[in-house]
Records
---
Amino acid sequence: MMGITVCIVLLAALTAGSDSDPHSRLDVLAIVWATTFALALTHWFAVSLSMTLVNDPSVRYTRFELLVAQLGIAVIVAIAASIVVVLVSRTYDRFGARMTAAVCLGVLVGTEARGGGRSVKQAVAYAAVALVIAASIAYVKLIVSG
């Protein structure tokens, strides 16, 4: 679930500001990595604190396993967005990173829906809706910034 949050927050972080303002690829990469990494650590801290305060016998993972999982998904999203930022022209690097967050969101929504017991058809439908909404946000931002 945290991966979904990472994608949404990354999309929001990359939506702030103007795509047409002068920036370097390093600026975009800094936003991608700082957002995903900081959010993963923040989420890990919040869940770890909750684990300390609430004794839930259904919890089957350690704080370290949780940290690895949180950082793992954040790194996967950040690497995917970074590859796009490096490969596309500077004019479209922020848009490319936003679209990557949108695609990752769609994939994660579908995966979580399927893992939560939804049928393949339902999971694909949820993924498609998430992808269309997120991609629309990314595209509208591109148009507004242009």
---
Amino acid sequence: MPTTHQVIFYPVKNGDTTQIVLNNGRRILLDFCHRTKNEYDENPPIDLKQRLKDELNEVGLDSFDVVAFTHADMDHIQGSTEFFELKYAQKYQGPERIKINELWVPAAMLLEEADREHQSEEFILLRQEARYRLLEGKGIRIFSKPKALLEWLEPKLAERGESKSSRDHLFIDAGSLVPGFELEFDGIEFFCHSPFIKHCDDGDIIRNRSALVFSVRFLANGYYYDFLEVGDADWEVLEDIVSISKYHGNIDRLKWNLFNLPHHCSYLSLSEEKGEAETEPKGLVRELLMLGQPDAYMVSSSKPIPSWDSAYKEIQPPHIQAKKAYEKYLQLVGGRKFLVTMEQPSTDSPAPLKFEITGGGITWRRSSVLIGAPALADSIPPRAGAGFGIL
């Protein structure tokens, strides 16, 4: 039977929430950012909590197989501790809360120790949940294994009468596949590119540099397709990833058919210089962009990107200079379309961006502006086998 996976990007302004729905029904949520609507919104965000609950209810579920928080900035965790069940305290449990079967977090989320005045309550609760699951030894994956985290963990394991190595199976290093998903059985695998240990052991933790970066590979009817999920990585992290991937012979893990652009289309993921008309990517970042495959898509999880003159002076992302750079490289690799979550199908009524992954390629299932009208596929069908085959 034909295989169909889905990748869904939700319109939450400058924020990230992406769901992967596998052909076998397993569901992975990458980040969670619920924005509250108000009467002054020209571009209202989706009611993320209700939307996700409705989607789960439709298939009789009350949980995600995995919820991954790439890092702890509010535009990646906002509203999460009111939506999800937290195992460490009964007051955060109940039938109305959505369950997390396995939580994925970077090691930095367990290590940050700033006082409450400099941390959100939301982050503190998630940190407590991650630490609880790690000590219990189940329902969590920690990405990177810095010395600082072991210095916190090992005495607590000793108090429980457990060995120093009893939680080793829960840690994932950069350059590794994440256990629990297999191409042959699930049609997906996750390759971890970052964080590196140095992102947590160099002193002060910078969330964007210690965030999760994945290459997500799908298998559909004999063909591979790759989704690059980059969080908010800056250009220096991306250059490190490309350099290390080349050194270890993993450059194929940087190919992309679908690219979730880092940091809401910020120029800082391309270079330290914005540029007047267009950002010029750093050399290794340029190599990453050139690894796009025919018919590829780029997605900016961001507010609309205007094209008028004043847009070139914007300080906060999205940056039109970055958009122009991305569009140029998308064209160079024979890609299909640059999409912005808060622009589709219209800026005043955005809806989730849905992509279907089949043996024939990745297809954007375009939403209609008219409520209740059927969804339309992208007007040009993907070239068969635009990924790479294994048969």
---
Amino acid sequence: MESNWKEKAVKYYHDGLGISDIALLLDVSRQSVSAFLKSQPGYREEKERRKKENARKRRIYKTDKQRSYRAGQGIPMLVTAETMKREHELAALELSRERYH
């Protein structure tokens, strides 16, 4: 029984589950699972790979969140030919008014 949970723990870990999830599935303490996995070859490499992947995902999330904040501030996200033309016309009217009147 003891080696059975250890084999399953290694398989689950390589499938992407976290230590807490593995402990719940196998009904073994989180500390036991963690200590066992740390003794396995390739644990450190897998941990670094997960860390890099999570950092990449967080960067994407933060970029999207910043874009949504900017969109909420009333800054138009789409600039079309019509909006540029209208903006130019308003600026020209204002400038001509300042210069001659």
---
Amino acid sequence: MTEISPPDSSPTGSSMLNTDFVPLGERALQRILDHVVAVGDEAETTYLEVKSELVMSAKATVAKIAKFLLGTANRRPREASQHFQGYAVLVIGAEKNSALGVPRGTEAHELEDRLTPYLGPQFPAFEFGRIAVSSEREVLFVIGQPPQEGQTIFPCHKDYQGDNRRDSLYDGAIYVRGTSNTRTARSGEVLALVERAREEGTLPIELMVQLVGQVHRVIGVQDVIERVRAYREEQFAKVATPNDKSGIVSTPFPLHTGIFGIEKPLSTEGRKRALTAWQGRKDEHLAEGREHLLGVGLSGAGIRVVSRDRFVAKPHLTITLHDCELIEHLDLDEADLDKVVEPVLKKQPPYWSGMSPSPVSFTSRGYPVDWSNRDKDAEIVLTPDSFRPNAPWTSEQDDYVIVMRDSEADSVEVSWVLTEEGNNTVTTGQFQLLNNHCIDSLEMFKSIFTVGVQH
């Protein structure tokens, strides 16, 4: 069971919940759950509803959630803003003195798909939270967005006939939140919603977009790879016959013992053909080697976004770093000299090996970060479920590294474009990143692939 805090005897304790906070995040939801467990159904208001237990797969449950969301969406903004900064919360799986929860496994996207026929395609996105109360059960929270001036009226889009008439829904009906329940709107409430729609629209979107990490200036990458190529070719040429087993040779910089491996013996003619083929793939090798060296040698970067005082539903944010390149970020333990400069003769995997030793990466379904290189610019696209008011949203820093194409430049221009689902307004912005630090590729190479010289 989840740990329930004891009732607070202060005026803002169990009987009078202080609602001057945004009901998002585990700590905020725990405060609400503690309040519900302390007072039970008495917690229900225009902005908070409680269901002790629902079968989440049942049509009746979907209808009850839809009715709650319709009612909270049809509130007047000034009144709604007095509690939870305009949000409204449905708690499922709790009652007075108990938080038994419901069986775990409800997915937000599946619930949203089942709600859409009732809510309609233009309905604002909702938030979904959960608090585990055991290994098999959890309390669920469905969180409606703050209503906004200029929003249309949200009618029900589908009928549902429940066993209890109070649970039924009617196509075209307008539902509003009463003191502790959701009901059909009265004429005065409909007129108030008409006035809401006539008011000036929602707050404009104001974003703060920042880079987390570094944009790198790197010099000498091709020179380092060329030197290693020259060493590869030199050592290959020294092997005059298949029986030549000499192994101690000098290098341009000290390297880990054995990192070049052992080439498969070939005839003189075969060795010439192998060398010619290897030399012919030079441009390909340089490009692949550069990506691998920079991928393991440089730190990754991410994006942090803050929406000022406004909820942004299903955003699509495109960030362009001009005259930059994105390269896949790799962990240091993935460093492989053979991927920086391919040997003249590749090492052959054991005959029983049916898989490549190369690491395979997977992107999870719904991952909200995509990136690519377009012409000479780097493009990052973010598509999270939402940007919450004044709550930083930050992407991971292990997706890519950012490299300036001009190593002599000391700054990068960044521009961004944001669109929001259901909103025709396009929001744009730009900023500049300064970088006075230049990375020497040779030193980076040594730090990854070399060890101290022993005399």
